[in-house]
């Protein structure tokens, strides 16, 4: 690599760059990891296996962590475990956290976004030069202080949340909420604690602060929709020949489960998910292999309406050749493909129906509204908490599955009223169930 070329990324003795010949042409289309080998007396190299810089950085981080002579958790002189927050960079702690924990989580994209916000702060501070108190050389010790979090919080709240297209151009932006800032701080706390909890530990200091509690930074959602609005929404989604199948499925499943949008789009009839099987009186919103977290996904009774949809989906799944079943079986799908989000279809519906389009009218309004309707129709507090996953199951409930009778009764009443106002719209055959078999891949609904 030419001496004058600045490394794209450096950590310890390793640096990342392009491997060039004497004439400047590339030896490889992939980025290369370089390091000096004192025993051989020369620079050695290894391919990162990719031309994408972010993936190449990840490859370098893996190599660095695998090198016990380089990892900051070890003393270079004696090789003994060493934990010094003053010597362990925050950027390295973030990289290690993502590599060893965050990137393997279901919420990896969310974790990445929150930590990128922290890294953006370090870049801004670095660009300020002598005027910046923090930068890419910030250690974990400095990041654990209240001075750091106060500076980050003040900066973060002035930064808009932006959406970019594939070309990297900003297509949408909005003011950052205090809750979004505190979510990034909570992720930062997790990073710093991960450094201390590593085996052997890489840091000897924990943060002196905590994120502000939700009650201080989250706005209370006041918007609720009633039976009439629900009927209009269902009728819109069920309108034939409009390519609204994913939206229709999402709305019906939400009504039957009062689940969070993320849980609804992950309902599957496949045996390996172990959420439901034909004839099962219950559905487990927490699929096989998913660890429960603060947003608990409960085991719920299957309402007759939901059973109708699940049975039909399983019949279609079983009818597929075995080799074509991979990626299929999702209740909320678009021509058989899994759907991550119905936000675009939902936003288009709000416009078409003349409903407000603000933050409180996002798909989450279904969960809030249905909970309110159920409570006002006699659902008992204990039943509603368990049905919505707001209460952790007791050991007794591991053996005695809750039936939540008052919630089931309230939902049956809600469904009956929607059926009266929009006859047939809740049923699957209102829009036709046949779907063309396409290659499995994730898709988003068109607007």
TrEMBL record:
GO terms for biological process: DNA integration; DNA recombination. It comes from the Bacteria. One of its GO terms (molecular function) is DNA binding. Residues 197-218 are annotated as: Disordered. It comes from Sphingomonas gellani. Keywords: DNA recombination. This is Phage integrase family protein. InterPro entries: DNA_brk_join_enz (IPR011010), Integrase-like_cat_sf (IPR013762). The keyword Ribonucleoprotein does not apply.
């Amino acid at each position: 690599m030419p001496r004058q070329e600045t490394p794209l990324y450096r950590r310890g003795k390793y640096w990342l760059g392009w491997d060039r010949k004497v004439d400047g042409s590339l030896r490889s289309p992939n980025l290369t990891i370089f390091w000096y080998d004192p025993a051989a007396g020369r620079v050695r190299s290894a391919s990162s296996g990719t031309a994408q810089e972010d993936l190449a950085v990840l490859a370098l981080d893996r190599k660095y962590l695998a090198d016990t002579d380089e990892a900051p958790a070890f003393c270079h002189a004696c090789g003994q475990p060493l934990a010094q927050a003053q010597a362990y960079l925050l950027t390295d702690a973030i990289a290690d956290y993502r590599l060893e924990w965050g990137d393997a989580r279901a919420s990896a994209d969310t974790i990445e976004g929150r930590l990128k916000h922290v890294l953006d702060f370090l870049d801004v501070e670095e660009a300020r030069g002598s005027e910046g108190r923090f930068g890419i050389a910030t250690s974990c010790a400095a990041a654990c202080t209240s001075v750091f979090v106060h500076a980050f919080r003040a900066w973060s709240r002035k930064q808009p949340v932006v959406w970019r297209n594939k070309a990297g151009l900003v297509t949408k932006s909005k003011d950052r909420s205090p809750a979004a800032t505190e979510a990034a701080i909570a992720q930062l706390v997790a990073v710093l604690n991960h450094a201390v909890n590593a085996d052997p530990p890489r840091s000897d200091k924990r943060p002196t602060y905590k994120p502000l509690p939700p009650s201080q930074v989250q706005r209370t959602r006041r918007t609720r929709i009633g039976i009439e609005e629900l009927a209009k929404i269902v009728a819109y989604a069920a309108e034939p020949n409009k390519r609204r199948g994913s939206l229709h499925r999402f709305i019906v499943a939400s009504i039957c489960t009062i689940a969070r949008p993320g849980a609804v789009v992950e309902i599957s009839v496949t045996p390996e998910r172990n959420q439901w099987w034909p004839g099962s009186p219950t559905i487990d919103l927490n699929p096989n292999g998913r660890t429960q977290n603060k947003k608990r996904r409960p085991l719920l009774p299957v309402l007759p309406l939901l059973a109708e949809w699940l049975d039909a989906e399983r019949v279609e799944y079983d009818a597929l050749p075995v080799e074509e079943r991979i990626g299929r079986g999702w209740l909320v799908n678009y021509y058989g493909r899994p759907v991550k989000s119905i936000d675009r279809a939902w936003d288009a519906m709000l416009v078409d129906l003349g409903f407000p389009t603000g933050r409180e009218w996002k798909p989450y309004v279904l969960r809030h509204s249905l909970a309110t309707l159920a409570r006002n129709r006699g659902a008992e507090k204990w039943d509603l908490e368990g049905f919505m996953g707001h209460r952790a199951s007791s050991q007794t409930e591991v053996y005695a599955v809750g039936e939540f009778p008052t919630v089931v009764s309230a939902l049956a009443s809600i469904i009956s009223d929607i059926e009266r106002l929009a006859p047939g719209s809740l049923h699957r055959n209102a829009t036709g169930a046949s779907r063309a078999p396409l290659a499995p891949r994730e898709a988003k609904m068109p607007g």
